[in-house]
TrEMBL record:
GO terms for molecular function: DNA binding; DNA-directed DNA polymerase activity; exonuclease activity. InterPro entries: DNA-dir_DNA_pol_A_palm_dom, DNA/RNA_pol_sf, DNA_polymerase_A. This is DNA-directed DNA polymerase. GO terms for biological process: DNA-templated DNA replication; double-strand break repair. Residues 318-538 form the DNA-directed DNA polymerase family A palm domain. It catalyses: DNA(n) + a 2'-deoxyribonucleoside 5'-triphosphate = DNA(n+1) + diphosphate. Its EC number is 2.7.7.7. Residues 1-21, 418-467 are annotated as: Disordered. It comes from the Bacteria. The keyword Hydrolase applies. Residues 450-467 have a biased composition (Basic and acidic residues). Keywords: DNA replication, Exonuclease, Hydrolase, Nuclease.
Amino acid sequence: MTGRTAEGEVALVDLGPDGSRGAPQVVEPSGLLAAVAHREAHAAELGSAPPRWVWSDAPAWYPGLLASGTRVQRCHDLRLVHTVLRHSQLVQDKVAAEIRAAEQWDVPVHPGTEQQSVGATLFDMDGGSPTRGGVPQRIEAALEEFDRQQRAIDGSKDPARLRLLVAAESAGALIAVELQAAGIPWDVAEHDRILTADLGPRPRPGHTPALMVEVAAQVREALGDPMLSLDSPVKLLRALHRAGIDVRSTSRWELAEHQHPAIQPLLRYKKMARLLTANGWAWMDEWVHEGRYRPVYVPGGVVTGRWASSGGGALQIPRQLRPALRADPGWRLVSADVSQLEPRVLAAMAGDRAMARAGAGTDLYAGIVAAGVVATRQEAKVGVLGALYGGTAGDSGRIVPRLRRTFPDAMRLVDQAAETGERGGTVSTLLGRSSPPPDPAWTSAQLHSHRPEAGTAEQDRARRSARDRGRFTRNFVVQGTAAEWALSWMAALRLALASFDEVPLDQAAHASGPVFSRRAHLAFFLHDEVIVHAPASQADAAARAIRESADAAGRLLFPGSPVDFPLDLVITERSSAK
DNA sequence: ACACGGAGCGCG
DNA sequence: AAAGCGCGCTCCGTGT
């Protein structure tokens, strides 16, 4: 853990090798790095379970350790765990109230994380405590919170599940820091080639790339408006109307339905503008250094438990730029993504035998077609997405009832989650992460709409917002449990990779910067996809580890379930767009 | 000068 | 009308 007391000490709590409670050993500041390194090495030598370090939060402490070459195998992240426990319905009321009362730990996203540079160490923070946005800095406060959390978990309705969640969430905290430190191997020359091919050569600062200028001129010509600003939706919409194109918005899907000489160049311009502003040369200059793109990952950044990211849009890298992801010389990218993770998670959670059978191949949607529910894969996909998201209109509204007959257990699970949400209730993932309670304004609007004097407009609005919330809770249980599966997958994979031998120094992964790793390591994560950067000699072993970890995650979360989690896995030098 | 919401689009 | 979930980022336009 954590920060400085008034006297200026820094301390870390070592939970003990078996993860059980014992007297926590508080590590003194002067020996912090040495103590962590020593305990970790000691456990490795003995082959015993590694210690679990308890700290305020990983981004405050781990980058410094990592920069000094010290890795931590396990931790308990007080801040992340606090967030889980303060909402979890598994926690008994009395302790939950205590947790909720400790508001100083309720810091949703770590402010300052963006500024956390990889090279910063624990000891750089002169002049008092690190400014870690409100997370308590005193060791006593951390020990108290740790004690509360342990009591909340031990006395909960399902300690075993909550412990899994806490371990997975904390492992995610370590992985996020390690991913940032490792960075994504990024080939700026390839990135520049893609930009140049699509936009024209890099323009002088403040100028528009040549191809964009050309295409914009085509649009203005076709619309007969030589001064039109294409970047203002309002002005563009007016110009479209003047040209007789009857659209309600300027969005791509709607434009595509019209025939007019302006449409094709406009769609092309939008695509170009997006690439330039979101991932153009400016992005490259800001985010890629020494051959690595280092985004900030935010574990638990989404209410469902998914990760968010901050800085550079790590989770939104366009597939168009995937070829810029390139392994170091002599290294490989081992990329794997799970086929239809969310529906599989639903099938396993619900114990839906028929849906498990449909997913027995590698393509669950094909399995649904084979089961005779729908005629085409596209229909299967639209139907399943409608089931997960609460679709009622169009094709999905037509197909979902059929899925309800064929997969009654799976559909009952999501339908009940939706119903609970509509009533203002709380739903939980498999491991016990619970949805936030409704906004007080939401609740009061629902109550008011039931008064006899409520108008129909008020009733409609209330019903609509009830259904909105129902769709949220419907999706919450699946998206959140899928996130738990993915964390378990990565946690297992991370430990497996850590046991790989180191390759000789001259083969290490370092791009043009400092050596980061001498063995296969995680380099990217995106909800249901991982990329491992591995020495060529370890690529096959890494691929096996990825598959074995996926199997392990399935067994851990769904023991005895027939549902499997097949991967699409490729070993390449350069990531390719799908 | 800055904050903020909406539009639009990238990802799953 | 992108039908139906969750995000981040950039831009514009408005409000202060």
